[in-house]
Amino acid sequence: MPGRQVPVTALPDVRVLGQLLLMQSVVTSLPDDSILPFVMQGLTDIPGVMRVQFRAQSSADDEDATQHFRLACCAHELGELVFTVTDSTAFAPYADHLRNFAFMLAVILEERRQRRIIDAQYQHLELRVAERTGELARERDSAQRYLDIAGVMLMALDKHGRIMMVNRKGAELLGQAESTLIGVDWFDNFLPGSKKVLGRQIFARLMAGNARLVERYENVIITRAGMKRVMAWNNTLLRDEAGARTGTLSSGEDVTERRQAEERIRELAFFDQLTALPNRTLLLDRLKQTLSTCLRSGSQGALLFIDLDNFKSLNDTLGHDTGDILLQQVARRLTHCVREEDTVARFGGDEFVVILAALNGSAEEAATGAEVVAQKILSSLNDVYHLGQVTQRSTASVGVTLFDGHNVSAEDLMKQADLAMYRSKDAGRNLVHFFDPALESAVKERVRLERDLRRALAEGQFLLHYQAQVGSNGRLCGAEALLRWQSPRRGLVIPGEFIRLSEETGLIVPLGLWVFEAACRQLAAWASQPEMAQLTIAVNVSARQFHELDIVDQLLNVIRRTGAKPERLKLELTESLLLDNVADTVSKMSALKACGVAFSLDDFGTGYSSLSYLRRLPLDELKIDQSFVHHIVANPSDAAIARTIVALGQSLGLRVIAEGVENEEQRQFLASIGCFAYQGYHHSRPLPVDGLERLVRRSSCDA
């Protein structure tokens, strides 16, 4: 509530009212904590006023020398302005204007109060502004200094676009003294060349009343030193007493660094930092846009998935820095192979993706166009790379899939192109292959198979069959444990249908351990049966399983837990095991052999046979692979290999056994060259445990 009503005895001074109007315009641009100091200092210029105070709560002051003006808005009491009046007659003409000013001030203060509630996290910044405002308020003794308390650029333009007021902050930003800026044409001197004419035209329409004021916007200005700065403006119109537009009053904040930081964040989010190409996120966004465009226009598109061949080897031999240089050169070459409207992106690692948009014509014509680009890419990537002091050649494998926007997602297209790329890899690399739906069907079946395998392992759907092994004395001496999968959906599945997948997925490790434990339990069970107690069991161990760091402890723990006799166990290893870290392999074999476990080298002669590692390995047996046995009678080469293996085993003091013996003729030939131990259909197919036990008992009776 204002204080006592003061009768109006005279007309107000126009200059004082003008100062009130100016204060109203300026207040909207001031920081929160600067408003009341500015207002109280400015209102002391009202005739008849000695002092103006702000009180947070209304008081019951009945002194004749004070006038009270409530600051209230939206049912919120914000305090009051208390005027110490020395001349009530001089003060009276301004009472109504001050009520209006108090209401305007209350609206502004309430809006600022609400903003503070919303932006509480910026209170520390507001405190700094308030401190700075307090310092400047003490120095303020003129209208120009009132403006200088703001921490932003304040500028007034006349109706011709000339600067008629600018504060110190604005002068510093523009790089010119305040006095020399007055009267300077804003548009000619501080806007970029391409924006001068347009900016002046818009301003002229605004001053003529033919355009609405844009209160907030951002633009680029040019400082006197020629530097570009991004400014965020808040604008209001200036009017004369008749209400005509006379210019604008603007507050501007330099947000250059903030916008640069935002652009950097955008680059980090959407662009690869090494190659400056779009990254996976932006790639998928552009692919979705291209799909939509194809659907609307009826055009075709193509997606190319590119993987560098043998990049890991280059990285390992020449170093990651050299590898990075190669990737940067690949990015440039790919960009030069496509049109400007196409997209080249780095998908990750040594993988790149190209989107070919707007391929006109039929699907066949689009495929031809995509093939041309893909071959161009292969040719470009095959050229010599100059990597610092090193020259290097590199190739790539490319997978292509076409699309027209119908019934396919961006994610599905990526999978299709990826599958086609791997088809190029499998076919020998440095090739282009298009996606084939049959390939996708095979992959889906692979996914189903992996899912079923994991369920089978969890639900115990595996079992062991055993194939009898005949010793050099012609009697049954042991058996090889062979894994079988009794699937509720697939029936009885042999290892050839799932072992490779289990190796690729890592399931071979828990699966191999299950086989070993099942075989050990069977050995322990046979130990109490006299006719079975002398049998050995051969168990296959994959290279991946044997490379487990704690494989020795795993196997020995199983032996102890099941009570199996280790001297009745024979582990069959493949030659691929010996490609990596032979010393580690020898160490693990020796530790197991010291506990009584024997070793057989499976599929000997099919891999990387080397006398050097044969001498180092603590082996007990070599196994002739069935691929040599199958044609051993008719094929001299297979016969020669078998003879060599037998002779090698004899010279090294190792037993030799042949697998895959299917008839008597093969058995006799093997015996003639010194190999008497064998396994195969000639003696017995793989049998369930009860079938093998019956076979052993029958053999014992025959003996």
UniProtKB/TrEMBL annotation:
Pfam families: EAL (PF00563), GGDEF (PF00990), PAS_4 (PF08448). Transmembrane segments: none annotated. One of its GO terms (molecular function) is cyclic-guanylate-specific phosphodiesterase activity. Residues 299-437 form the GGDEF domain. Residues 446-700 form the EAL domain. It catalyses: 3',3'-c-di-GMP + H2O = 5'-phosphoguanylyl(3'->5')guanosine + H(+). CDD domains: EAL, GGDEF, PAS. PROSITE patterns: EAL (PS50883), GGDEF (PS50887), PAC (PS50113), PAS (PS50112). One of its GO terms (biological process) is cellular response to nitric oxide. Residues 215-267 form the PAC domain. InterPro entries: Biofilm_reg_signaling (IPR052155), EAL_dom (IPR001633), EAL_sf (IPR035919), GGDEF_dom (IPR000160), Nucleotide_cyclase (IPR029787), PAS (IPR000014), PAS-assoc_C (IPR000700), PAS-like_dom_sf (IPR035965). Gene3D superfamilies: 3.30.70.270, EAL domain, PAS domain. Residues 139-210 form the PAS domain. PANTHER family: BIOFILM ARCHITECTURE MAINTENANCE PROTEIN MBAA, DIGUANYLATE CYCLASE DGCP. This is EAL domain-containing protein. It comes from Candidatus Accumulibacter meliphilus. The lineage of its organism: Bacteria, Pseudomonadati, Pseudomonadota, Betaproteobacteria, Candidatus Accumulibacter.
